[in-house]
Amino acid sequence: MQATERLFLDLALFYNDYIRLLSLEPGAPFTETSPPPSHTIVPLFLRNKMTAEVRGGELAWEWRPIATWRLTGSYSYLDMNLAGAADSLDTTTEASTEGSSPRHMAWIRSSLDVRRNLGLDLTLRYVGRLPAQQIEDYTEMDVLISRRLPQGFEVALAGQNLLSPHHAEFGGGGAGPIEVERSVYGRIVRRW
Hints:
Helix content: under 10%
Number of domains: 1
Number of helices: 1
Order of helices and strands: EEEEEEHEEEEEEE
Strand content: over 45%
Number of strands: 13
């Protein structure tokens, strides 16, 4: 919706009802003697004994308070509810799937033309926790200072994840969480 000449809003809502989703069903354990030593095998079978209701939405917006300044952002909400069928023995898929996507995410970006050829972009973002991966929520900020040059060139200095030296974003399995570090870099771009 174009609310005003300088304000644009976009709202998207969804609801999905799934049946016969993948599940991991344990089989009867058995013992093998070869190769030595003797060991117990607990087989897992891929079956389709999960259901899910998934709902959520996103609100995105762009506002131009003045011609040289643009504010954009969004907020997303996700609610997942998985359940096993009555005869399912799967005890892991529900919690691991529901807890591997953030329930809340939000970001806001300020793009300002400081002068005719000099730009400053600031982005602040929030990502909710991932309980199944033991990842806490985090807030981070990125900064980009750019200068447009003749013949389509642009030089820029960027800083990413500036609010902390590092933060975990993914569980990473047995190797532990995968962390993203603070970084600063330069770039040269040519557009034609």
